[in-house]
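Question (not urgent): is this output format expected?
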Amino acid sequence: MTDTGRAAAPQASRTSAAGARGATGPRKLRGAILWACGIALLVLSVAIAVTIGPARISVADVWSTTASHLGWGRSRLTPIRDGIVWNLRMPRTLLAAVCGAGLAVCGTVMQSLLRNPLADPFVLGVSSGASTGAVVVVVLGVGGGAVSISTGAFIGALCSFALVLLLSHTLGGTTDRVVLSGVAAMQLFSALTSFVVMTSADAEQTRGVLFWLLGSLGGVGWIDVWICSAVLVVTLLICLGHARTLDAFAFGQEAAAALGVHIARTRIVLLCTTALLTAALVSSAGAIGFVGLVLPHAARALAGSGHRRLLPLTALAGAVFLVWVDTLARTVLDPQEVPVGVVTALIGVPAFVLVLYRTRRIT
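Got this back:
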């Protein structure tokens, strides 16, 4: 190499590094703007959603009541209206936000981990297992009244996930075996649920179980909000800690292993984490589909594929989405309530077809 060539090489390297640093700045700024806008939109959505309903309540009333219960003043509402805001609408709206965020995060992790754009939080059969557990408690009366429907659903979800882990490990533990094991567990527990309902449930029990299976946030309390929020925070922290690992999985298992990723251990940790979060959410709100399937694709279009930015943005998008979906579900046919899962499916199917169409055009 000539002296001119040797001198040009370091100069080109410095120019490339400077360009990379220059490109990082706008990306960070864009991520900060999206993050700030997402938080503001979520807070505003929760405040407005709580005001919607038969009782006339303003956003100022919501802020007043919230500040009062947080020890920052006194509420200007009557005790009845204060109870409507704080004990009925606020827990339901916040749980909708938590469920939307959790399902979206689980969908993002599952799609990256399994390298399958159609993967969602229920691909491990967790939803079907939770449904069976809930039906066993409600219809068969297992637990003698000491076991709640949420507890039964959580236990059923864990049993289903344990079966998936056992089957996938026995079959080799590859990503396609995990998906196939999840499908098998889903069919098994769905069949068990149908069998119990058909042979043991009366008409009223069947209607109640069907409404829960389609997703319902009615009747939730603050305990549900705190439990699901705690599990969501822990899950999000664990997933953010594995953000670089999830980025490596995008290049395939072989490439991830070459980068030093422990494939089996990482997969077990993330699968268990997302399954536990899904079980907690399903046990409180029932099976709400399409949130974890569609929202990750929409978030990737805004934030890119880097999981350190993608996961928080997906959580915010899922939270805002389900807050408004639940608001629509409880008001569109007032006084009758529509199951949340029905509304998410009606919105999610056209959105997912659009995502698939745009993906086809790009590829």
